[in-house]
């Protein structure tokens, strides 16, 4: 993983350890977790920031809707808002609040700025609707007096919802705050941690500090020292860390770059804390974290991607259910052995899982560890297996991997651990090979529709494949997935570049 093929960093921070240390493979010694690291593992996985933001946005909309409905029961002469207008005002308020940063994760825990954003959106939205009614000649439909009364009802209701959710989120820190690990200077980390209280709440649960220098770490005050920087590898891959905050003086630019490069291939957010010794800002304002790297396909994009995965998987299962049963029967009749084949693959965050495929080789010649890749004319492939490989129909059972949440419908194809290209392990061929595991693997992907599919006899084939995978991760959009899906169906129909 990281550190296996990347040059040794010039700073005092050693590269993060490869995943084989965490698995306990012979010849690799993993660092022993200290007491602080063991305590960090006990924290439950928090709710997604997107889910929390959606909850608060829904309550903001509910405040507008309930106050609009209440106007229906007040004996106004004219101008009570109708249901379409109520829904539009609610959507407009939520949109303006989001544009003003009112749903950022730190904003959900209270403070003056998010309240100002929400109330400002309510006021601006109401003013725009009232002005539009006057300009369009519909003052009878929506009178200014009704607009003011609506604002009078909605404002206290919105404040109650906002203050209530902020208090609830602060009261459930292990379920709402993002788990953060500080890296770097002990004194700088202590100064930063001291600011994350009260009105400067950033929505972070600080697990502790990692630093190779135990003496420097001792100056971090009450922050537990989790261990050296190498501890982060196992913590991130076990899903114990959501954000890594680099806490060190900005003058240590080279060390910041080295740490940023080390963490670039992990599915975590990486931020840089301000150097508070030189930071000059209003004491009432929270210090701004500078974002260095974000998890790919995050926030609302992750919601869209998840919905897309399950919709496509269910549609594919509905269409391919009967053909899959017939294929399973053909596999059993063609040669002895089970119809399905389970093979260990590396998935999201470098975690292994078992991928499902129709068996295409003779059962006694099965190669679950991929000691030898299947080549054209391979004698181990059965007659039915050859057809399934040419048409990629052997991959259909992976629909169940998608429904289990282990894979996406579209994404980088999962590889078996230990697979080689040109005689060398994939991790040694490309320094950024592990970066493709920042998202879930897929049934098909950009590399496959470009023709980079099948065995990797040469290193160039792997390089082209990984380059396409990284391009997909960095440029993902629903339209890109649609393009890949269409091109996949065309490629399957032509039986192109399949084995």
Automatic annotation (TrEMBL):
Compartments reported by the entry: Membrane
Gene3D superfamilies reported for this sequence: NAD(P)-binding Rossmann-like Domain
Keyword Transmembrane helix: yes
InterPro entries reported for this sequence: Bact_transf, EPS_sugar_tfrase
Its membrane topology: Multi-pass membrane protein
Residues that span the membrane, as ranges: 51-74, 86-108, 115-136, 148-169, 310-331
Keyword terms, alphabetized: Exopolysaccharide synthesis, Membrane, Transferase, Transmembrane, Transmembrane helix
Domain Bacterial sugar transferase: 305-493
Family: Belongs to the bacterial sugar transferase family.
PANTHER family: COLANIC BIOSYNTHESIS UDP-GLUCOSE LIPID CARRIER TRANSFERASE, UNDECAPRENYL-PHOSPHATE N-ACETYLGALACTOSAMINYL 1-PHOSPHATE TRANSFERASE-RELATED
NCBIfam families xref list: EPS_sugtrans
Protein name, as recorded: Bacterial sugar transferase domain-containing protein
Organism: Paracraurococcus ruber
């Amino acid at each position: 993983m990281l550190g296996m093929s990347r040059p040794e960093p010039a700073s005092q921070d050693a590269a993060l350890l490869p995943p084989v240390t965490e698995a306990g493979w012979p010849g690799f010694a993993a660092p022993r977790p200290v007491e602080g690291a063991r305590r960090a593992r006990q924290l439950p996985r928090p709710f997604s920031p997107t889910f929390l933001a959606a909850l608060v946005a829904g309550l903001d909309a509910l405040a507008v809707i309930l106050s609009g409905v209440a106007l229906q029961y007040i004996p106004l002469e004219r101008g009570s808002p109708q249901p379409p207008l109520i829904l539009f005002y609610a959507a407009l308020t939520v949109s303006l609040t989001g544009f003003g940063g009112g749903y950022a994760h730190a904003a959900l825990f209270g403070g003056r700025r998010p309240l100002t954003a929400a109330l400002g959106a309510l006021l601006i939205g109401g003013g725009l609707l009232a002005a539009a009614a006057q300009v369009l000649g519909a003052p009878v439909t929506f009178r200014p007096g009704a607009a003011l009364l609506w604002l009078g009802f909605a404002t206290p209701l919105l404040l109650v919802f906002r203050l209530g959710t902020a208090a609830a989120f602060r009261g459930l820190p292990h379920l709402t705050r993002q788990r953060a690990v500080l890296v770097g200077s002990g004194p700088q980390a202590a100064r930063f941690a001291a600011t994350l209280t009260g009105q400067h709440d950033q929505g972070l649960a600080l697990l502790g500090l990692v630093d190779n220098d135990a003496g420097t770490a001792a100056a971090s005050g009450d922050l537990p020292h989790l261990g050296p920087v190498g501890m982060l590898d196992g913590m991130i891959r076990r899903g114990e860390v959501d954000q890594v905050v680099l806490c060190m003086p900005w003058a240590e630019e080279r060390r910041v770059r080295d740490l940023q490069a080390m963490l670039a291939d992990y599915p975590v957010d990486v931020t840089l804390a301000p150097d508070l010794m030189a930071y000059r800002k209003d004491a009432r304002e929270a210090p701004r974290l500078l974002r260095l790297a974000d998890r790919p396909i995050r926030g609302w994009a992750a919601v869209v991607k998840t919905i897309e995965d399950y919709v496509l998987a269910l549609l594919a299962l509905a269409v391919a259910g009967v053909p899959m049963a017939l294929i399973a029967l053909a596999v059993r009749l063609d040669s002895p052995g089970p119809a399905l084949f389970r093979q260990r693959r590396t998935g999201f965050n470098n975690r292994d899982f078992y991928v499902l495929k129709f068996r295409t080789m003779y059962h006694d010649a099965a190669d679950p560890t991929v000691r030898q890749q299947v080549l054209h004319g391979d004698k181990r492939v059965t007659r039915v297996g050859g057809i399934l490989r040419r048409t990629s129909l052997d991959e259909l059972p992976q629909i169940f991997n998608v429904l289990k949440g282990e894979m996406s419908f579209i994404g980088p194809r999962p590889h078996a651990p230990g697979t080689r290209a040109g005689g060398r392990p994939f991790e040694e061929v490309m320094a950024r090979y592990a970066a493709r595991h920042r998202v879930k693997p897929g049934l098909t992907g950009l590399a496959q529709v470009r023709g980079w599919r099948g065995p990797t006899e040469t290193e160039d084939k792997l390089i082209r494949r990984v380059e396409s995978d990284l391009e997909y991760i960095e440029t993902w959009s629903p339209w890109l997935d649609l393009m890949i899906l269409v091109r996949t169906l065309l490629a399957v129909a032509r039986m192109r570049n399949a084995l």
